[in-house]
Description:
Number of helices: 9
Structural class: alpha/beta
Radius of gyration: 21 Å
Helix content: 25-40%
Strand content: 15-25%
Bound molecules: SN-glycerol-3-phosphate, calcium ion
Amino acid sequence: MKNVVTIFMLIVMVSFRLIKGLTRNSERQIPIKIGHRGAAGYCPENTFASFNKALELGVDYLEIDIQMTKDGELVVLHDPTVNRTTNGKGKVKDLTLKEIQALDAGSWFHPKFKGEKIPTFSEFLDVYASVTGLLLELKKPSLYPEIEIKVAKELMKRGLHSGENNHIIVQSFDINSLKRFHHLLPSIPIGVLIKNTGVKRISTKDLNSFSSFASYVNPKITLVNKRLIRRIQHHGFKTIIWTVKKNSDVKLLKQFNINGIVSDYPDYF
Length: 269
Ligand code: G3P
Ligand code: CA
């Protein structure tokens, strides 16, 4: 009798796994294609040239980084200084919008991009919010008091926060900033960015704590493995992986049932 029960239990377990596997496969989705800082592999990042190139390559979303000038204007730029990607020098938070707009943000990449400007967030939204999805990163928000309020206001002004316009995701490495943003605009999905912090794995405690404000957990590609993706999804999150720079990265990610891929070369996948 004991054997019969054991065999019965085994059959139930195997069938359950099989059904689960089949369901998982049938739910397999095509990840959304997200252009990193536009198409940063081909054009100077976070410029109109880069965004237009990404759209030409068929992205579903544009990823950008948002920071704030000395006079409180939101601009689209990755680094907290202008040194690497313009002909100027200094911290974004110490420069006025006028000073920022006088900079050349294209020549460092290639002379043919001379004259590209650092876009304001407002200009960016005016041109792209109606044509593509947007993955907005609050970059180093601890440097910019109340940046969450300013970003939220820009979105609200254009009606981009309502449920029907569900093509905007806000992400950051800064958990406190994300919580503040979620409190301001709970209808916008939030993504927690994860990179290698020296800690071997994202703890279950962390994953549980994200669930009160986030819909996405977005790890760096170097952290990705089957188990991590399973744990993220098991906790009810979607996941977007960043940043694909090589064809081999695309191959790796094809093994996983993920929601989005951020790439400098959006034509790779
Ligand atoms: O989309 C995530 C990715 O952009 C985060 O890294 O340094 O490129 O802003 P970073
Ligand atoms: Ca970014």
